[in-house]
Amino acid sequence: MKFFFKTIFILFILFTFSNQKIEAGENNKELLKVDWSFKGLFGKFDRASLQRGYQVYTEVCASCHSMKLLSYRNLAEKGGPEFSEDQAKAIASNFELRDGPNSDGEMFTRSAKLSDKFVKPYQNIEEAKALNGGAYPPDMSVLVKARSGGADYIYSVLVGYDDPPSDVTIDDGVYYNTYMIGNKIMMPNPLSEGLVEYTDGTKATEEQMAKDVTTFLAWAAEPHLEARHRIGFKAILYLIILTILAYFSMKKIWSRIESKV
Amino acid sequence: MSDHNYVPSTKLGKWFNDRLPLLSLSEHLREYPTPKNLNYWWTFGGILTFCLIAQIVTGIVLAMHYVAQADLAFESVEHIMRDVNYGWLIRYIHANGSSMFFLAVYIHIFRSLYYGSHKSPREVIWILGMMIYFLMMMTAFMGYVLPWGQMSFWAATVITNLFSAVPLIGESITNWLWGGFAVDSPTLTRFYALHFLFPFLILGLVILHIWALHIPGNNNPVGIDVKKPSKDTVPFHPYIVIKDLFALLVFLTLFAFFVFYSPNLLGHPDNYIEANPLVTPTHIVPEWYLLPFYAILRSIPDKLLGVVAMFASIFVLVILPWLDTSKIRSAVFRPLYKQFYWILVLDVLVLGYMGALPPEGIYLLIARIATAYYFIHFLVILPVLGFKEKTIPLPLSISEPVLNESHEVVNNNKMSTE
Question: Are B48 and B101 in contact (CB under 8 A)?
């Protein structure tokens, strides 16, 4: 029995360790670690931070980065930024999209509704590339899950802009970033102090904005995270109690046999 | 099953049982005499059955929402994650379920190797098991392709390209597999169809595997034949059922931890980037459970020989009952084999580790040594060991070690009586 758990334990350490090692090898520098509110057994998103994060996204990032998997209705859903439905409707109505054809066969422009997906900044990848010096600003819907290091990586890159060291030459239209893989990034530093004016009066420092928008992106990538943590805690608690019951039932049943289990 | 003279208690039961002996079967499963000294390593058969059923059930629900078309697959998976009720839960159970399935199957296989469960008269159980394992790897690989992320696409490209190593007809085979001239929608669609089919083939093989098991009965940690039924055995129900249930619940707690608290730990972040044939990821790696084979494949400089070595590494397992010449089953009574066993475990772990690293410099050298040792273990050490090894005398029945709880005591007792 002791041996059984020891081996499982060793196996696990090996596999998780090996994963982390490989991922760490890809990064140039240890990522900045942020104490995210959504980590841990009961982790939840900071509602105010999500709302501020949406503001940063829509005012700063959205001019280049699409979020094609999200709908405006998501902004009012439980476990997300939880804007009121009216607020979400108002947000949606700020965007215009092409719809149609109508009964006359014409395409037309209308303002977005709750059921619409986030309106994209570019018609297609080619247009996005043409307007961004050949680099395609990736869709941000699942970006946090698509980068090793997750939220910490996104945050680190956002605050990781720096002057290149003297031995590194950087071409025009490329920027130096301490945490980006290969240190070269096509996106100019998107954040600067006071770039957005938060409606809740929070001071818009670079770190604050990076933190808020990363929280927003983490939610966008995993919109059911809160439900997952809530159900997960109950499920594991239930399993542990059931395991204990099964253990004592087993002991009782096996006590009929003269030997031990 | 013929050793039962079971008569149902009701008239209807008897009428039905005479026509289809399902009641006799269930009676057999209840009464099935099981060695009472089985340890927890023997609970993984039940755990694996659970894993298979869980994968089939969650898989069918996913299939109701998934779209197997290159332009839509990635978004349909995200649709499941976002908009389908508890879709995230179903998908995370299915995705982590494959890892848990392989974790359990590796423990199950290594338990067999340790206690000699593959030896006579259980060769057919073992071969059926290897067929299940092989189908599992194919199924898991094709399932990994379905989300159509970067790793999906490139893993499919790398693995299907292996067949181009076949002389003369290699290219035709790959084109036939792809349904075109590159991995694309037709490839995805056929992988989906096969990914749906294979679990049911596995289920069929599992039934044969259990049937074949019920002919000689379970092996046990002492590895000697057990008279059935006798004081050395207990009926399957309730003794083994409750023990398997307890072990399953421990396993499920670990499973739940992965599903709810680190559902993406065992996956690769690149698979959340939609497949793009124009961008190759820096490192293309398969899921962790295929890494040892990937390491063997890459450690051979020639492509064709690499593929041959990879398939041979599974094939040596199939013929293992005839490679392992020792008549003694359990490693408990084989002091030398016990040591080589643990070296093999370490060797496979090293192979897995090397499979995750780029094949260059010292890593490649280590992978080559580990690959060579893997084959030496099965093709040289095991056949020779059977003749050379001085084994510890076996007890007369399993009750002795069970009652004394220590093999040394058993041996001393035996020696004093001799």
Answer: yes
3-state helix, strand, coil in chain B (%, to 5): 70, 0, 30
Give yes or no for residue A75 having a pLDDT over 60: yes
Probe site for chain B from A31, A217, A228 (most B CB atoms < 10 A) = A228
ipTM: 0.89
Closest CB from B41, B75, B399 relative to A4:
B41
Residue A22 confidence (pLDDT) above 90: no
Domains of chain B, CATH where assigned = 24-279 (1.20.810.10), 285-418 (1.10.287.980)
Q: Which domain does A63 fall in, by range?
A: 26-70+117-250
Residue A125 is part of a domain; what is its CATH number? 1.10.760.10
Is residue A256 situated within a structural domain?
A: no
Q: How many domains does chain A have?
A: 1
Domain-located, residue A33:
yes
DSSP characters over B25-64: HHHHHHH-EEETT--GGGGHHHHHHHHHHHHHHHHHHHHT
pLDDT at A112 over 60: yes
CB contact under 8 A, A246 and B242: yes
Q: Is residue A105 part of a domain?
A: no
pLDDT at B418: 36
Share of chain A above pLDDT 90, in %: 75
Q: Which of the pair, B106 or B283, is modelled with greater confidence? A: B106
Q: What is the pTM of this model?
A: 0.91
Chain B contact set for A229 (CB, 8 A): 260-261
* Residue A187 is assigned to a structural domain of this protein: yes
CB distance B41–A246 less than 8 Å?
A: no
